[in-house]
Design brief:
CATH architecture of chain A: Orthogonal Bundle
CATH superfamily of the largest domain in chain B: MetI-like
Largest sheet of chain A: none
CATH class of the largest domain in chain B: Mainly Alpha
Number of domains of chain A: 1
Order of helices and strands of chain B: HHEEHHHHHHHHHHHH
Structural class of chain A: mainly alpha
Order of helices and strands of chain A: HHHHHHHHHHHHH
Number of domains of chain B: 2
Largest interface: A-B, 118 and 117 residues
Structural class of chain B: mainly alpha
Number of helices of chain B: 14
Helix content of chain B: 55-70%
Oligomer: heterodimer
Number of strands of chain B: 2
Strand content of chain B: under 5%
Number of strands of chain A: 0
Radius of gyration of chain A: 23 Å
CATH class of chain A: Mainly Alpha
Distance between the termini of chain B: 24 Å
Number of helices of chain A: 13
CATH architecture of the largest domain in chain B: Orthogonal Bundle
Radius of gyration of chain B: 25 Å
């Protein structure tokens, strides 16, 4: 710590200003969600509305079955997480154990898959799901979990397993363990932080997913929370307090989950670090 | 210290021994084990074939068909392509998409780079700042769209209230053809958490020795950045830029769908929105597929260039080992 004091001050001033700028949308989301609906719009920036209208939250749950939609979202995420963890860690383990030529090919394939614009597949996935009878079921939302949800998750598990000592796997193999037992008894217990991180990233992916339910769901009883936000917007496009109260309901679990695991990939002992 | 004994292998929390002993091929790569490994890999490969491979092939076929989901598809050759290239909306959407990518991708990559350089060092408070920078990225995009509609509301949104208080002009933002696209660019530059983490990782992978020898040689901060950090970070920057270009096609959909629906006067009509409307509002499956195919080919050529670049630079194994 031989840096002059003014440099430290400058660092903190700049970093703090940037951090505040980045959390400003969240602050405004929460503060506006507590405005009394129907009041004249503010003339200056309002950090804390007067009076605080916590009743906006019960109101939106009465306007739409948002509780039901949130439950649907939770069910989808709760199913997606274990499936994703299984398929992604299987693929990651297999990649880490394959011969190097094949390993290289599959890693290139995964990076290639990361770069495919899913937008270009919407329509034909729709047709495919129709043939498979997955339309208007949670299956159409959960289908990506079959391939580990994202090639990124497979690569994260691959990285975690590659960093483990090969002797561990060797020893298990000599004992006659099958690949499945190796996965369950050796690989997974050592990859706890990767499991936590991938679980939360998977939650964020499915909790936030708007496009799949928009394209593939028809019955309101299956709608997830993001569709509810869209419905609320269509009901009253300018009722900002209510729209942003629903946004808070949508955002709070995501932020909470993120804060729980952020140190895994933002801390000094980073998940992605060598 | 290599004590990974046969019975205690699963108790060893942290491997204390990293020597890579060449294993007898018979034990590690015998047939049944290889079969088991392929079984573990199969959901991933099958899923990729089913969800990416098959739809991609189907898109290619449908691009040459007339199909409206009601009657049987009919082969029409290049007709869909003639149709979309004669369609003024497709031309507008291509230009708008290029405008968006041209502004948003550099802003996002450079923003992530600047923040990663600022917050890379393990200093007091750095963890808090990093988490703050990442936070907008975890906001679900529907909620993110709604809050930015409020923030950029021309009459009483916080941005225009601030500009007014400072005596600056207050644009119409989403209501104005001149500024509507810009709102989406600005929104995008706050959701750069992934790139930020990728570049933090890249910075940490640069061996300390490089910086130590630069300190001995007396290089100044700019020289260190220009001749050490930047070249060693370049594979990450390339990967990030390409992924960002592709992701832009995707990430722009929900905000535009929620906030403007392509208006005013088509000024925010981007390709994904046009494709959605062609396919799911008008049931023009053929032209929609043709548009998707063109987008797909554009993306694939980018991937191809990327792979060649990486292979030649020898970064492929390195960046994921």
């Amino acid at each position: 710590m031989n840096k002059p004091a003014w440099q430290t001050w400058l660092y903190h001033a700049v970093s703090l200003a940037l951090t505040l700028l980045f959390i400003l949308p969240l602050i405004w989301m929460v503060s506006t969600s507590l405005r009394q609906p129907g009041l004249p719009p503010p003339r200056t920036i309002e950090w804390l509305p007067q009076p605080l209208a916590f009743s906006n939250y019960p109101t939106i749950f009465n306007m739409l079955p948002l509780g039901w939609y949130a439950l649907n979202s939770l069910i989808v995420a709760a199913l997606a997480i274990p499936i994703t963890l299984t398929t992604a860690s299987w693929a990651g383990l297999a990649l880490s154990q394959l011969r190097s030529a094949w390993r290289g090919r599959f890693i290139m394939l995964s990076i290639g898959l990361l770069l495919v614009p899913i937008t270009a597949l919407w329509l034909t996935r729709f047709i495919l799901f129709k043939w498979l009878g997955l339309l208007n079921t949670f299956g159409s939302l959960l289908a990506p979990a079959l391939m580990g949800s994202s090639p990124l998750f497979v690569l994260l598990f691959y990285r975690a397993f590659r960093r483990m000592s090969p002797e561990l796997f060797e020893a298990a193999r000599l004992e006659g363990a099958t690949a499945l037992r190796l996965w369950w008894e050796v690989a997974l217990p050592l990859a706890r932080s990767t499991i936590a991180a991938v679980a939360v990233l998977t939650f964020l992916l499915y909790w936030s997913d708007f496009i799949s339910p928009l394209l593939y769901l028809k019955s309101p009883s299956l709608y997830t929370l993001p569709v509810g936000l869209r419905q609320l917007e269509q009901m009253d496009k300018t009722n900002w307090p209510l729209l942003l109260a629903a946004s808070v309901v949508m955002t709070a679990p995501a932020v909470g989950m993120f804060l729980m695991i952020q140190h895994y990939f933002l801390g000094e002992e980073s998940l992605l670090e060598r | 210290m290599c004590d990974a004994g046969p019975s205690a292998y699963w108790l060893t929390r942290r491997p204390s021994c990293k020597v890579n002993v060449a294993s007898p091929p018979s034990s590690r790569f015998n047939l049944s084990y290889r079969v088991e490994l392929s079984l573990l890999l199969s959901p991933y490969v099958l899923g990729a074939l089913l969800l990416i491979g098959a739809p991609a092939v189907l898109t290619t076929v449908l691009a040459f068909m007339f199909y409206d989901a009601l009657s049987r598809p009919v082969w029409v050759g290049w007709a869909n392509f003639y149709e979309i290239f004669a369609d003024p909306q497709f031309a507008i959407a291509r230009l708008n998409t290029l405008y968006y990518i041209g502004l948003a991708v550099p802003a996002r990559v450079l923003g992530a780079l600047g923040l990663a350089l600022l917050l890379n060092a393990p200093r007091r408070g750095a963890g808090f700042y990093r988490a703050g920078i990442y936070l907008p990225t975890v906001i679900p995009d529907t909620a993110y769209a709604l809050v930015f509609m409020w923030i950029f509301n021309p009459l009483y949104g916080p941005v225009n209230l601030t500009l007014k208080a400072l005596g600056l002009p207050t644009p119409g933002w989403l209501a104005d053809t001149e500024t509507a696209k810009l709102v989406f660019v600005i929104m995008g530059t706050f959701q750069i958490g992934e790139g930020f983490v990728v570049l933090l990782t890249g910075l940490r992978n640069i061996p300390r020795d490089y910086y130590d020898s630069a300190a001995v040689d007396g290089g100044n901060a700019w020289q260190v950045f220009r001749y050490i950090t930047l070249p060693l970070l370049s594979p990450w920057l390339i990967l990030l830029t390409f992924r960002d270009v592709i992701l832009s096609f995707q990430n722009i959909f929900t905000p535009v769908f929620m906030m403007t629906g392509g208006g005013p006067y088509y000024s925010t009509l981007f390709l994904p929105l046009l494709i959605y409307e062609e396919a799911f509002d008008r049931f023009h499956f053929g032209p929609a597929s043709a548009m998707m195919l063109i987008m797909f080919i554009a993306a694939a050529s980018l991937i191809g260039i990327l792979l060649v670049l990486f292979e030649e630079a020898g970064y492929v194994e390195e960046s994921h080992e």
